[in-house]
Recover the amino acids of this structure.
């Protein structure tokens, strides 16, 4: 799996972090162009590709890619 985060679309709602069943994401120290802290990937190997983060993100700031 490849997790793509479109940092400048993020508004720091935290939904992706809260709903990830495997705690793949966490809040970053980085600030995007809108003044928000986008998520960062902390445990990419734990990602199962459930896509909850992608499906629940209200701003379409995350995409999960399945590379085989």
């Amino acid at each position: 799996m490849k997790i793509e985060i479109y940092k400048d679309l993020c508004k720091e709602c935290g939904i992706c972090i809260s709903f990830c069943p495997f705690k793949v994401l966490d809040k970053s120290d980085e600030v995007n162009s809108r003044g928000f802290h986008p998520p960062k990937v902390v445990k990419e190997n734990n990602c199962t590709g459930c896509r909850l983060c992608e499906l629940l993100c209200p701003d379409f700031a995350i995409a999960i890619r399945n590379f085989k």
Summary: The beta strands are 2-5, 25-27, 39-41, 62-65. Helices lie at 15-19, 52-56. The mean pLDDT is 95. The chain has two helices and four strands.
